[in-house]
Design a protein that fits this description.
Strand content: 15-25%
Helix content: 40-55%
Oligomer: single chain
Structural class: alpha+beta
Radius of gyration: 24 Å
Strand order of the largest sheet: 1-5-6-4-7-3-2
Distance between the termini: 36 Å
Largest sheet: 7 strands, mixed
Amino acid sequence: MTPEKPHENMSMNGWPHIFSRRAKKIFLLFFLVPFVLPLSPAAVSAGAQSPVGMMDRVEAFTMKNGIRVLILRRPFSPTASFYIRFRAGAVEERNGKTGLAHLLEHMMFKGTTTIGGKNPAQERKLLRKIAKTGEALDREIAKGPAGDKQRRDELSKRLAGLQKEHRHWYLSNEIDRLYTEAGAVHINASTGQDMITYHVSLPANKAELWARIEADRLANYVLREFYQEREVVREERRQRIDADPDGLLYERFAAAAFLVHPYRRPVIGRPEDIESLNMKDVERFHRQAKAPHKMVITIVGDVKTSEMRRILEKYFGVLHPRPETASPIPKEPTATAERRITIPFDAGERLIMGFLKPPPPAREDYVFDVIASLLSRDRTSRFYRYLVEDKGLAESVQAVNGMPGSRYPNLFCVFASVRRPHRIEELVVAVEESLNQLAAEPVPEAELNKVKKQLQVDFIRRLNTNEGIAGQLSYFETLLGDYRYLIDYADRIAGVTPAEVRAAARNFLNRDRRTLAIMVKE
């Protein structure tokens, strides 16, 4: 798993793993990663030492209510990046209530009792009426043809009237306004299988404003425009999954690749679940997911630890600790035979091939980072040379390690689309040949060393900015409970051997362990 996971911070149209509030773009892997200019060995060596030095300067502590805090002072410019992550995501949802984490992310930007609220008492009364009416309408709609159409129409009209009245009692987009007027950039949020993230970069002297806003929307959020926003999510799903070949193929693939584990469920939610989610569901999920002991705050920039401790204690210290209420996550059984699905769709033929493997920090995870780069990093990679140039079979092809999350055993995946007039079965065979070659023949040292150096360069470049460092520190502290994963990453990648690559390919990249999803032209 290359820090940070590709589908945590890349926003390209395509595969639905992370839903970002602003970008609202789904991760597409049908592309070829741009060529990265190599650095000299000396530059790589010098750069690889800097993360270790930075880790030694991280101030890490746990607040009394369980919030984990990481602070790194970098006085290069009078700015700072602020990350809040929660070790809770779509995997914490239960069947029948999928999409809650994503919908909650939307709602957390609607303001609080003091941010945007004109009359909290009056607003609370109206929200109770809206919730009651919305639930009654949902129940009537769920009856289908057997329902009372007249009552359904009456409830729809009543809900619309209450929503119109509610608009008089709040100001929209106040959180965005406050941040923008303070000079904020990169205001964003994302929801994934493993975690929920909120981040922003600000002038360093606005740290207290950040704490005031974020603590307030954790403790005093208001579910404004809930049913309107639920409809926005439904439309988002229709556009990005139901009507999109890439999104649809990935959703069906994940459901086949995982039989019992929640990774099989879409982050955005199933359509029948989204349309029945109510305000009480979101409130329950908020209490479970946003508990202080699941929270990691990371601050990187021109800040003083002593001052930040004071600010954090003032605003976040008042959040009450909560007991763990999440249900155990079922363990995914090891595959013993190929799982294969075919989906007809009016689009070009394409495939996803996935293999279940261990998550980080297992040694195999590092090896699969290297394998992914060997196969599809750039135009000199194996997939490109064989499938695109030599055979002319693939329009695009990409290997990705660690999907759709990394808290639990996950998948090494290959995504590919067919170049006409070839057919999908030809491409399947050619991909198999490339993977079998890894298992049969040791990778030449020169080829392996080139890829490892490229990964090390990528690693160093991710740590060039306050935002990049904060993202990495918070991600691994949240995921693994230890940000120091970053310290050894470059060295562990450098130590991957041809024998390890061959063993990983033999043990995991075989047909008995794979799931194959194929989209054929309807």
